[in-house]
Amino acid sequence: MKRIISLLILTIIIVACGTKRTKVDQLEKTVATAQQIKKEIEIPKSSAVQLAADVSFLASDELKGRDTGSKGIARAATYIQNRFIDLEIAPYQGDYMDNFNVRDTDAFNVVGMIPGTDGDLKNEIVVIGAHYDHIGIMKAVAGDSIANGANDNATGTAAVMAIADHLKKIDFNRRTVVFALFSAEEKGLLGSKHLAKRMKDSGENVVAMINFEMIGTPMVDRPYLAYLTGHDGSNMANVFNKANDQLIVTGKLDQAAQFGLFKRSDNYPFFTKFKVPAQTFCTFDFTNFDHYHKVGDEMSEVNSQHMAQVVDAVMPGVLEVVNGNRLKLVSNE
Ligand SMILES: [Zn+2]
Question: What does the alpha-carbon distance between residue 262 and residue 258 come to, in Å, rounded to a whole number?
């Protein structure tokens, strides 16, 4: 009887462990390196239709250019939050809305997360971000006064949601991943400054920040798909290119350095606060889009197939950053 009971207990334990065993446990037992993980994991393909739907909503006239503090941006924030809920992306620190003030108006970043799966590495955070605000209403051109901000930066916002979707489905991220859609970028990177400070002050260990800006139109005559700001400042470009064996993901655009783009988007506050690789992927090459900060920045100017290609191209690198060796700074900019 005693033997039967202990056998029974053993069986129960085995069954209990069996149900708890996740894909992660299985993978961690069978694969050792990030290189091997890549072979084991099937990365879902991005949907150009979903990317286009996200950009279309965010850049619609009803949202009136998503100016910080406006009713339109509040609708955009609710939309992003609902997308996170649909994708089963958890709220960051219990709340998707990360509130702050811009002078006397309320502003909010929308922030979700997937907790890390590795006992130690889960304390390291990779932030994947984009700003979702834009500049609102401007002087009318041919009766149109809404700066829709489709390329800038509904495209980056949609890309972050697509990456969140993929990572959730892949279900293998040793590090914790935080998805941050920033407000008030156009007012001086205020949303990202707020979140970077909040994370620093609460003792979070951010090890990398990957940002997306204006990925709605293909670059002209380049061997790579997207450039990376602060290209030489870390090994990020190298890691993304090595991780993808299909194409050259990223390269260096001289104008990016010339115009100081490294310091002009939401990656920068994370660099200054945490002194870790924090850079922006972008495909606006100064020749391939005539509507920067104009009323003509509309969905009709955005190529959603290209967006899908960019997201698919960066995914192996994203997986490497969240599971593999920590990215390294090469020099301080
Ligand atoms: Zn922008």
Answer: 10
Write out the CATH class of domain 26-323: alpha beta
Distance 131 CA to ligand 1 centre (A): 7
How far does the centroid of ligand 1 lie from the alpha carbon of residue 155, in Å? 10
Is residue 315 a contact partner of residue 160, using CB atoms and an 8 Å limit? no
- pLDDT score recorded for residue 26: 56
The two beta strands, 105-114 and 124-131, are unpaired
Choose among 116, 140, 271: nearest CA to 193: 271
d(CA 35, ligand 1 centre) in Å: 33
Looking at residue 41, its pLDDT comes to 85
Q: Please name which of 115, 163, 156, 325 lies closest in space to residue 234, comparing C-alpha atoms.
A: 325
Q: What is the pLDDT of residues 251-280, one digit of tens each?
A: 999 999 999 999 999 999 999 999 999 999
Is 225's pLDDT higher than 70? Answer: yes
Determine the angle formed by the axes of helices 155-170 and 48-58, rounding to 10 degrees.
140
Cα 47 to middle of ligand 1, angstroms? 23
Q: Ligand 1 centre from 127 Cα, in Å?
A: 17
Cα(97) to centroid(ligand 1), Å = 20
What separation in angstroms does the CA of 124 have from each of 6, 74, 197?
A: 41, 31, 16
CA angle (111 as vertex; 110, 117 as ends), nearest 5:
165
According to the model, what pLDDT value does residue 40 have? Answer: 77
Q: Which residue's entry shows tokens 């007012």? A: 187
pTM given for the model: 0.90
Distance 49 CA to ligand 1 centre (A): 22
Report the separation in Å between the CA atom of 152 and the middle of ligand 1, taken as the mean of its atom positions: 5
What spacing in Å lies between the alpha carbon of 96 and ligand 1's midpoint? 21
CA of 213 to the centre of ligand 1 (A): 6
